[in-house]
Amino acid sequence: MWIFFVLPGTILLVLVLGFPAFQSILYSIYPEGGGSSYNLNNYSILFSDSVFRQVFGNTVLFVILSVASHLLLGLGVALVLNREIFAKPLFRLIALLPWVVPDVVVGIIWRWMFDPVYGAFNDLLIKAGLISTHVQWLSNPKLALPSVIFVNLWRGFPFVMLILLAGLQSIPSVLYEAAAIDGASWWQLFARITLPSLKKMLVVALALDIVWEVRRFGLIQAMTQGGPGNITEVLSTYIYKQYFQFFRFEYASAVAVVMTAALLMVSLPYIWMISQEE
Amino acid sequence: MSFEIQIKFEFQTERRRGKMKWFRISSYVVLGMVVLIGFSSFVNAQEKVTLRFSDWHLAEAPWDKTLAEAMALFEQRNPNIKIALEPVSYKDKETKYTVEIAAGKGPDIFHLHAFSLPMFFDKGYAKDLTPFIEKEGGAKFLEPWYPLCINMMKHKGKVHAMPGDYMSMVLIYNTELFKEAGLDPKKPPKTWEEFLEYNIKLTKPPERWGVAVLGAKDPGFELRFSPFLWSFGGDYLTPDNKKSALNTPEAKEAFKYFIELYTKYKVMPPGVPTMNAQDVRTQVAHRKIAWEIGSGWSAPIINSINPELKAFDVLAAAPLPSKKKKVTTIWLSSWVMNPNTKHPKEAWELLKFITSKEMELNWFVKNRVTSSRKDVSEKAPEILKDKFASVIASQLPYGKVVPQIPQWPEIMDAFTTAVQEAFTEMKTPEKALADAHERINGILARKK
Questions:
Q1: Is A143 inside any structural domain?
Q2: What is the DSSP string of B240-282?
Q3: Chains A, B: CB contacts under 8 A, how many?
Q4: What average pLDDT does this structure show over A207-215?
């Protein structure tokens, strides 16, 4: 009888996820420009393409720096918001705000803020005495990717913060009280109680954030469209461009399959951890 | 006992009769309603056909109002057709239409710029209009349009789209800023050397710069950059469209000149490598730059961004400067019928309406775009007397179109990547152009 309970869900999953995934794999081995036999030519083109290699490298850099900064800031803010501070609910709400704004909207807003002629960001920094002249945040090849990562830090840290805050609240206060009686320092409390207790939450946040950052599209597309040159081009914007602007369905599918495979590999520790718990 | 049974029987019979009566009445009512609904649906199906009409202009002022009014007029004249308006952003239109058409759906009629057509033709995403045109009189029906425009609508010899706006790119400049810089607004530059001299005089950073040409990876880039390349005697591809022609001395000279306006002479404002067409128009609207390369759409849009500028009075148009050749880029838009349309007859009526002489003139009067119809662009007094349209129409004979091949968007992406790399000094202009040349040859070789 159990099969009747899982059948509707399974059919839905196959239709919504399985069919497009299968179609993409099929497309990826279909010869570009038509042909009769399936082959791996699209994959061979992909791995010999210098732009793809650059895009892959950009994606790795973007994801590592974004996730690392999310974890650091998310943990820091979660620690602060877990303490008894003035107007705690209000600060928790404010900290969550960047996360609820859609990606594309964040991209457009920051693109305007970074504008070298009209942008508020330069004015703010000049008034604060941090810079003396207007900086081209998105047109400068050395600053474009860090600028996008900075905006992504602002936009994405609340998600990590939320998970870690939930983890912090589940740590029994008696542990801290006992350690304090034994004369433990702030650092010892953090290193011996907080971090070990947050281990599972950190893995969950890390795995989910990696998956989301690899798929990050709207923010980068709205801010730089992958430019200048290919400095901020990542896999998701590259696939979009190949599929919808160049109509290279087969090649775009091959890139998408590689991206999915890479994502599955980084998700395995998370899946393993969940299955161990069960 | 038998009397009681008799009474009970009669009572039950009466109840049954009553039930039957109600059942009969209810049946008649239900039947009547079914017939009524069926008839009304039939009448509706016969009388009202809904056509989905999509255009990026629907998301732009002042075009949105003009189109809504025109569609209301069409509905009034064709009471059996209802138009559902579907705005789309200029940048995302190809994405939206591709996805929807591939899924067997999509708007019945949609608007594209002509350089997207080869990709849509290649994928079978545009309906063959030949049968409709034949019914209207064939070649005679197409006579009012410029032959170049009709040729660009053809795929394998058959017309698969109808031409829309047809304009040349010109200089749009602020006459007041010219006067402030000591330049005569009646004497715009004729050569690219003069253009540089004017820009140097107009540039007073951080208040003002001379010109801005969009550097973002945007479909509008090629409209603005191509006249530089072509007038220096260069080109993107060889005449057979098989190889890149960016390694010629003329192409190298044009590319270097264009890049140095930003890197060496600094007559363009900061941020040009990421600017799109709207960013540039915003700078014109707020007097941050003195001119741009634009066309009929420029003044209305600039006016809508900053009405205080009084764009129609302050701005003027002039032919683009030249070097070896007098040449400009042609802007041509097109109207496409979705091959998935369930109402081809009605969709054709709409296509005929939006490309009619009456509507083409209407688009000009309301939005200053000139037409691909000779009987409008060459004859309408409204166009011939207009200070912008007269210049735009005068440059049509010098117009040139970018190569109409499916690989074009990818080639342009490789080229704009090179422009951004040179603008931001990641590479020298020579190196950036040489890399683009190699990449474009790779693209063309792969698709052979």
A1: yes
A2: TSSSB-TTSHHHHHHHHHHHHHHHTS--S-TTGGG--HHHHHH
A3: 79
A4: 91
ipTM of the complex: 0.86
Domains for chain B: give ranges and CATH numbers: 48-168+331-400 (3.40.190.10), 170-330+402-446 (3.40.190.10)
Are the beta carbons of B302 and B317 closer than 8 angstroms?
Answer: no
Say if residues B107 and B53 touch (Cβ distance below 8 Å).
yes
* Contact predicate B223/B329, CB 8 Å: yes
Give the pTM.
Answer: 0.82
- The pLDDT tens digits of the residues spanning B281-328 come to 999 999 999 999 999 889 988 999 999 999 999 999 999 999 998 999
Neighbours of B364 (CB within 10 A): 21
Q: Is the dihedral of CA B374, B375, B376, B377 positive or negative?
A: positive
Burial environment of residue B97 by CB neighbours within 10 A (0 to 12, 13 to 18, 19 or more): buried
- Identify which of A32, A225, A246 has the shortest CB distance to residue B216: A225
Band of residue B1 on the pLDDT scale cut at 50, 70, 90 = very low
The mean pLDDT value of chain A amounts to 90
Which is it for strands B209-211 and B289-294: parallel, antiparallel or unpaired? Answer: parallel
Contact B145, B373 (CB under 8 A): yes
CATH number, domain of A129, equals 1.10.3720.10
- Residues of chain A with Cβ-Cβ distance to B95 below 8 Å are 240, 244-245
Residue A260 is assigned to a structural domain of this protein = no
| Nearest residue of chain A to residue B442 (CA atoms) | A49
Q: How far apart are CA B12 and CA B8, in angstroms?
A: 6
pLDDT at residue A86 is higher than 90: no
- Residue A159 within any structural domain of the chain: yes
Query: Which of B62-66, B72-76, B81-85 has the weakest average pLDDT?
Result: B62-66
Which of A110, A117, A142, A225 should one mutate to test binding to chain B, selecting the residue with the greatest count of B CBs within 10 A?
Answer: A117
Q: Is the pLDDT of residue A34 over 90?
A: no
pLDDT computed for residue A91 by the predictor: 84
Give, in order, the Cα–Cα distances in Å from B150 to each of A192, B53, B146, B184, B367.
77, 22, 7, 40, 23
- Alpha-carbon separation of residue B8 from B21, B91, B135 (angstroms): 19, 81, 77
Helix (H) or strand (E) holding B77: helix B63-77
Segment holding B209, helix H or strand E: strand B209-211
Nearest CB to A246 within list B99, B270, B409: B409
Tell me the average pLDDT across B356-368.
93
Count Cβ atoms below 10 Å from residue B233 Cβ, excluding itself.
16
Residue among A266, A205, A251, A180 nearest A68 (CA): A205
Q: Is the pLDDT of residue B387 over 50?
A: yes
Mutation to test the A interface, candidates B89, B101, B274, most A Cβ within 10 Å: B274
Instruction: Give the domain range for residue A107.
Output: 59-251
The yes-or-no verdict on residue B333 having pLDDT over 90 is: yes
Residue A91 lies in a domain: yes
Domains of chain A: total: 1
More confident residue, B434 or B399: B434
DSSP B353-411: HHTSHHHHHHHHHHH---BSBHHHHTT-HHHHH-TTHHHHHHHGGGEE-----TTHHHH
In Å, how far is B173's CA from the nearest CA of chain A?
20
For residue B364, what are the contacts with CB-CB under 8 A and spacing of at least 6? B296, B370, B371, B376, B380, B382, B383, B386, B389
